[in-house]
Design brief:
alpha/beta, 6 strands, 2 helices, single chain, 112 residues, 28% helix
């Protein structure tokens, strides 16, 4: 089963493809796949009416463009379905870049 890291809505994940899952005004669940500008890859976004289809598109973007991971944002926690995988709640884990930046900042503050 796949494990995904949840990030806060609006948070940046510079080396990740982000899937935003939300409910529209009619109550239907939509998933938006977003990826940042990276190297020769232009930033982009696509919306899907099927969350599994959005995950397939996100995996393809990771494989094709070499992003490090897929992260998830949720409009509300009750939208997540276990059949999509395991979700680590926001703030539970850091990406490699986030861990490096935290360690760098800690060392810099010790040197000050």
């Amino acid at each position: 089963m796949k494990c995904f890291r949840q990030i806060a809505k609006g948070a940046e994940a510079p080396d990740a493809v982000t899937i935003g899952i939300e409910r529209n005004a009619e109550g239907a669940i939509l998933a938006t796949v977003r990826w940042p500008l990276r190297g020769g890859v232009k930033a982009g976004e696509a919306t899907y009416h099927s969350v599994p289809e959005a995950f397939n598109a996100a995996r393809a973007a990771v494989d094709l463009h070499g992003f490090a991971e897929i992260v998830v944002t949720l409009q509300s926690d009750d939208l997540w379905r276990p059949e999509w995988g395991e979700l680590q709640p926001a703030g539970m884990a850091l990406s490699e870049d986030e861990a490096f930046e935290l360690a760098r900042a800690t060392e810099a503050s010790r040197d000050a």
